[in-house]
Here is the input.
Amino acid sequence: MNKTVTINISGIIFHIEEDAYDKLSKYLSTIKGYFSNADGGNEIMSDIEARIAEMLQSKTSAVKQVVLMSDVDYVMESMGKPEEFAGDTQDNTSGTHGYDVEPEEKSVKRKLYRDGDSKVLGGVCSGIGNYFDFDAVWLRIALLLLFFFAGTGLLLYIILWIAIPEAKTTAEKLAMKGEKADINNISKAVKEEAEHLKKRMEKYGKEFQNMASGSAPRNAAEKTVDFVSDVLINIGRVLLKVLGICLVIFGVIFFLGLSGSVFGLSFLSDSTNGSDWIDMLLMDGKDFYLGLTGIAIFVGIPIIMMIYAGVKILFKIRYTNRWVNLSAGIVWLVGFLMLFYVGVRTGGDFNKTAKVRETITIKPYETLYLRMHETAINYDELNISDRDEEGERNFRIGNGRNNDYMIGNNKGRKYLLGHAQLNIIKSQTDKIEVVIVKEAKGNDKRKASERAKNISYMISQTDSILEFDNLFKVANADKFRAQDISVILKLPVGKTVYLDKSLENVMYDIENVTNTYDGNMIRRRWTMTANGLKCVDCEGLDEDDETYDDYSTNEESEEQVKINVNGVNINAKDAQIKVDSNGVNINSKESKLTIDENGIHVDTKKQKRK
Amino acid sequence: MVNSENTKAQMRKGVLELCILSILSQGDAYPTEIIEKLKETKLVVVEGTLYPLLTRLKNTGLLTYRWEESTSGPPRKYYMLTEIGTTYLKELHLSWYELVDAVNKTINKQD
Here is the structure.
């Protein structure tokens, strides 16, 4: 007893034994392989199938209904081996016809297969080597080297392994090493397609001329349909090749980008890499790994499928592994769910906001000098290399305030840095106070305020100098939860502050009587009045800030403290202290003290008047 | 050893086109008929050879075909000579006789 299969050849139904069926279908697909690229290949194929159907029909009858192995053998014997007869198409083309015959395509065009006979892993390299006629060793070395570029080599290899079928039958092995396709590179293949298209167009052009000179109208209509479909198919082929190239190239670039930005395998750019941010955003452990895997899958699968599709288009691989698309889809969905889960959990941790206030009382001085703490962090630990034109480090990332965060890395211990803001308001009491408002988010109020308290931020006072950190630090364990610091200096009426240039980036919309923009408030003294901050030394000064960068000993600039190799030079409104190679010289409205080679000399105006 | 089979196959192949055209000049035929006639004269060893050749001849415009329903199987493709095919065949005939003549002369001289 044998199992039979029902098949349809040329519209005739046959019952065929299973093993006979296997043999016949292999035989047919081999023939198909030979003719698939030849001109009129489909027609030849259907002619052959019709003949086979006829032969099989003569072998079956009402009594013997089933096609047996022996019948298939008979068919194959009388039809001949495809290698024997398929060569015909090309052998005869070189014949000298008296007519304008267009050369036909080679019957056994080289096709890309994996070469299982000389494989190391899956025969991908040897297969490609066969296709392009070079030693597979070079490709293996190249892929191995590429492996160190974020594993691109491995990924490419796996994609090619899936996309390229292995040469199993004799016919496929022949096609693999077959008639050297005159494709040495892919661009040439595109050119070939275009040429083919052009040829077709010319051919049809001729046919149309013939048609115009009168032939059967039915025939003409048929030809028009043929022509249009043929042109479209050929244009499509060229476009497809271009698409294939684009898919592969962009796929590889995207993959490098992905592995670079997400996995910190960054060799393309030295900016802060994405994994640091993921680490800073997601809860430790499970969430982090889930999130990273999720992103890799969610973005990676489409990229891989891009390259896969590109390779298949480029090498005209029709064979499809059914599980590839399905499993890619499922894996992608899993990645999406991972991201979704992690996203929901992380989002929940932004639920509640808490603000914590710390008030510090400052020792009172008539004039407080405010400046930025310069050594708050070690900038070399930051992943920032760009400097602005003046050679200063550029601490800002992004332009929006919310993007003003950075990640530092101190010997593997990551921390988040954010910009603090400084504001100056009128104190309701007569004490000078600094209020530090720390803000953070969390799953609940308690967690949020705990995080807020954990933000480390310093201010320090040395006599009348008050120094602010420009950045605040958050430990990785606390994660990025929209932490923010705003510093409020409460200044009683009558007190004065001097704003150092270093404060430029810290000040945030400090209100004042004259509505002066933050950037123009620096290097000025501001006194708190009942109405708000008022500039003390802005009078007579234009908006022209540049003059204040001029540090040369300028008699006109009435107030200046200068210490350099020449000595000390202090210029005040009504007094001058000068220590230099000439000695010590102190001048005021009322008196004068000089210490020089002549000794000590004290001079007062009262004495002069006497 | 010289492989005479190969040489014979090449010779048959060379005249196959002429033979097919000649058979069709005697009347329209579908592939099986052509094959049977060729087999009688031992010109064709394997049938598969015929199909690509027919398609090519048709595509060059020497042949054309029409479909005919068959009572016992799939519809049959009846091939026939076109006008170009007929003139082409005449030319081939001429050169064939010339060739045979020349070859015979050469062979006989050597005998």
Residues 4-93 of chain A form one domain. Chain A touches chain B at residues 10-12, 31, 35, 38-40, 43-44, 47-48, 50-51, 53-54, 57, 78-82, 84-86, 88-89, 91-93, 95, 97-99, 101, 104, 107 (CB under 8 Å).
